[in-house]
Amino acid sequence: MASSSVVTQGSNMNGSMGARTRTRTSQLSGFKSTSTRTRTNPNRARKNTARSAQGLNPRAAAQPHSSSSSSSEKNKENNAAAARLKAATSDAAAAPTTQTLDASGFPRLPLPSHPDIIRGEVASNGLRYVILPNPVPPDRFEAHLEVHAGSVDEMEKERGLAHLVEHVTFLGSRKRESLLGTGSRSNAYTDFHHTVFHVHAPIEDSSRPQDGPLLPRVLDALHEIAFAPQFLSSRIEKERRAVLAEAQMMNTIDYRVDCQLLAKLHAENELGVRFPIGLEEQIEKWDEEMLREYHRRWYFPANCTLYLVGDFGVPVDEVKNCIDAAFARAPAKVLDDGEQRAKKHEVRPPVRHVWGAGERLPLDDLPESLTPHLFCHELLEQYMLNVFCKVPAAPVRNHGDLRRVFLQRIVLSVLQFRISSLYQRLARPCFTSIELDHSDSGREGCAVSTLTVTSEPADWEDATRIAVQELRRLQKFGVTQNELQRYTDALLRDSEQLAEQHGTVPSIDNLDFVMESDALGHIVMDQRQGHDALLNLAEDIQLSEVNEQASAMLSFVANYGCTDRTEMRYPVVGDEPPTWTTAVVACVPMSDEGCPGMSEEALAAVLADDSVEIEPVVDVDVPDQLIPDEQLAALVESERPHFVMPGGLSREEAASVTDPANVVVGNTYLRRLSNGISVNYQLSANEPCGAALRLVFTGGRCRESQSAPSSVSVGARALSETGCVGPWSREQLIRR
Question: Higher pLDDT residue, 257 or 55?
Answer without folding.
Answer: 257
